[in-house]
Design goal:
The protein is 27% helix and 25% strand. By secondary structure, the chain is an alpha/beta fold. The chain has one domain: L-arginine/glycine Amidinotransferase, Chain A. The longest helix has 16 residues. The protein starts with 14 loop residues before the first strand and ends in a 5-residue tail after the last strand. InterPro entries: Peptidyl-Arg-deiminase_porph (IPR007466). Keywords: Hydrolase. This is Agmatine deiminase.
């Protein structure tokens, strides 16, 4: 029987925990493992100030290593739970569960097919991650529903009230044979959404995800949208992000009102080994009572944190150093997945 009360919660709703997978030498982080572990340690310290953290580790040796690493930080180890499972990489926003919530604490772990962002990278172990977490008993009695259609968590935004925001550039790459109408129907059905809003513009150079929405525009409480802008007219992104801003300004809430928009400042270009890295401030993470904001060592860091805090009133703003992450073309939101309150067994 279909539970008509199921919906995709907004990220700012109460959470049980945040889920991450720790980088190790068998992942793509091997070349810069020490630097990226420093970001993960800072993230663990930030999350456990406010709520529990579940860390997926490849084996017992990695678990012991992580504990040693975190003992030298302010992380609250009493709030950390470890789960040993194999994984290809650590982008749990895209391989972790998209959790729908219903009445009476009924949860559905929506397990879309993960293809390594359209077959760019091997993803067999990551595609099995949700099933492994279920078998490990992480989610109690939650229903596990596999959907054989490629979708990543970073590719969708939810306002918690039935509206999903996504990008055409990403989903047409995953499903070139399908029309927008067909994909909208699949998203509404799979996510129990009432409507799907599409953006045709917006991208970041160096982004492997084909313009995931969580690098570009994010819902915030009170019919707000926070988005990555570019005020540098000489930058290659300027025209595209300006057009995206115009698209966002044209969107309407379910009751026909415009959204309140919060444009984010633009970090100066970060070039690494001849390639530009995708440094988006929109890739922030909301936790209970706080919002964790990426910092890149740029003069725009503090202004981005201020604006994000303004869009999420009443929350503590914590900056997390994320420059090591963008070497692999993602940031703070990309490596995390929030789990709704009541889900964790």
């Amino acid at each position: 029987m279909i539970d008509s009360s199921l919906r995709l919660p907004a990220e700012w709703e109460p959470q049980a925990a945040v889920l991450i997978a720790w980088p190790h030498a068998g992942t793509d982080w091997a070349e810069r493992l020490e630097q990226v572990e420093s970001t993960y340690a800072a993230l663990a310290a930030a999350v456990t100030r406010f709520q529990p953290l579940i860390i997926v580790v490849a084996d017992a040796d990695l678990r012991a290593h992580v504990i040693t690493k975190l003992q030298n930080t302010t992380a609250d180890l009493s709030r950390i739970r470890f789960v040993e499972l194999p994984y290809d990489d650590t982008w749990l926003r895209d391989s972790g569960p998209i959790t729908l919530r219903g009445e009476n604490n009924h949860f559905q772990l929506t397990d879309f097919r993960f293809t390594g962002w359209g077959g760019k990278f091997g993803a067999e172990q990551d595609d099995a991650l949700i099933a492994g977490l279920v078998t490990a008993g992480v989610f109690g009695s939650a229903e596990h529903k596999r959907i054989d259609w490629a979708l990543e968590g970073g590719g969708i935004e939810s306002d918690g009230a039935g509206t999903v925001l996504t990008t055409w550039r990403c989903l047409v790459q995953r499903h070139p044979e399908q029309s927008r109408e067909e994909m909208s129907a699949l998203l509404r059905d799979g996510l129990h959404a009432k409507r799907v809003l599409w953006l045709d513009y917006g991208y970041l150079e160096g982004d492997d995800t084909d313009a995931h929405i969580d690098t570009l525009a994010r819902f915030a409480p009170g019919d707000r949208i926070v988005y990555q802008a570019c005020d540098d007219v000489a930058d290659a992104h300027h025209a595209e992000l300006q057009r995206m801003g115009e698209e966002l300004a044209a969107l309407r809430t379910p009751d026909g009102k415009p959204y309140t928009l919060y444009p984010l400042p633009w970090a100066k270009p970060i070039i690494d080994e001849g390639r530009r890295l995708a440094a988006s401030y929109a890739n922030y993470l909301i936790v209970n009572g706080a919002v964790l904001v990426p910092a890149y060592g740029d003069t725009a860091d503090d202004e981005a944190a201020r604006i994000i805090g303004e869009a999420h009133p009443g929350r503590t703003v914590v900056q997390v150093p994320c420059r090591p992450l963008i070497w692999q073309n993602g940031s703070l939101h990309c490596i995390t997945m929030q789990l709704p309150a009541g889900l964790v067994g």
